Amino acid sequence: MTPPSAGAARVMPLRSPLPKEAPKRTSPLRLVPPRRSSASKAPFVVVLVVLLGGGLLGLLLLNTLVAQQSFAIHDLSAKDRALAQQEQDLSRQVQGLQAPASLAARATALKMVPSGPPAFLRLSDGKVLGSPQAGVAPVVTPPKSSTTWTAPKPPTTTTTTVSTPTGAHG
Length: 170
What we know:
mainly alpha
């Protein structure tokens, strides 16, 4: 590249050498009136009302179902507590009946007696180990009470029948 000479500086024009055309003005700017829509707004409003009503009805139905299930849960939990209490009562009753004192009292009521020392049978040779003894009934004397019970006298009438218990076990 050759350096420009000091006297021959070439300057580029800032504007285009060609003249520009003036813009054409056909008409002045004016405000356009809004266009009226030919579609009515009634179907849109109906759709909005139906959606809103359907949503509210759905919420009401959902709330009703939740409340109904809440009542069912409450009833079932109350029933569960009652059944748990009944199970505890029955368990205590079974434990009371399995107690040694209760078993001994019921066995005595059935006229059972305690057994003596046990005997064992050895299966390999058939030998009896120990000497079995029959149980002996203990003698129980009822305690004497200081008060005696007397039956009330029946009203005095001309025909009175008195029945006495028969076949009492003792």
